[in-house]
TrEMBL record:
Alphabetized InterPro entries for the sequence: PM/HMP-P_kinase-1 (IPR013749), PyrdxlKinase (IPR004625), Ribokinase-like (IPR029056)
Name by which UniProt lists this protein: pyridoxal kinase
Keyword Cell division: no
Molecular-function GO terms, alphabetical: ATP binding; pyridoxal kinase activity
NCBIfam families: pyridox_kin
GO biological process: pyridoxal 5'-phosphate salvage
Domain Pyridoxamine kinase/Phosphomethylpyrimidine kinase: 119-247
PANTHER family associated with the record: PYRIDOXAL KINASE
EC number: 2.7.1.35
Short name of any one Pfam family annotated for the protein: Phos_pyr_kin
Amino acid sequence: LAPDAPRRTRPMAAKHVLSVQSHVVHGYVGNKSAVFPLQLLGFEVDAVNSVQFCCHTGYPKFGGQVLDGDALWSLVEGLDANGLAAGYSHLLTGYIGSATFLRSVIRLLRLLRERCGPDLVYVCDPVLGDHGKLYVPEDLVDIYRAEVVPLATVLTPNQFECELLTGVAVNSEADAVRACAALHARGVPLVCLTSLDYVGGDRIAMLLSERLDDARSEQYVLELPRLRGRYTGTGDLTAALLLAWLKAHPRAGKESEIPNFKGSSLGRFPLVLANSWTSDHLLERS
């Protein structure tokens, strides 16, 4: 691939993200949920669209294109030929709509780790579905489970996705810890389980688990209010905020800073949703 491309071994910038996610014309999901918040937090973000739709797939009808692996690789070749593939500190991936595109993401990750060095952080949001329903073709589940999960630095599945990837039914905090242990055993250093429903009532939970060594891990739980309304793009925003928080709180070679998780921007996440709900209703009444 691009034999004459510059071979840098370090990222050009400490906060430069390549974000590979969906794009919609209307609404805020995928890159439209992740890019702007990361920019506000001081990151340079280059966006690649995995699909381009008129709106998210929860609408009764949507149109657009699902991009394939060749479309992604054409962009990667251009970046690499110009020496730009060596400039990233992070790879962030979200919704992917085809198996060929996902396999090209794996090739992309390996290329970036070759060009940028082994410290490149891969934050993988394995967008598969929610509440028992798949959003993507079923064959992507096996590819994530067997090929993508072992390559991730950080994995951010929701409860349904976690169950698909591990085979562990998550009905309690103990189940969530067991599921994280299964993902750690696959090679993932840091797992964040989002939107856990076992808490019940008017609360949901987010559980962060860090592998300390082959035998030990530590977990922290953040409970959040369950807000009325239906929201999309929340998982995409969560993964972006977690990426930013981890950059601000590096753990390598230091005492773990995971306890700061509860005071992070993720703890203020409900305010984003509450403001969205309020704004929508003000617009409806105006």
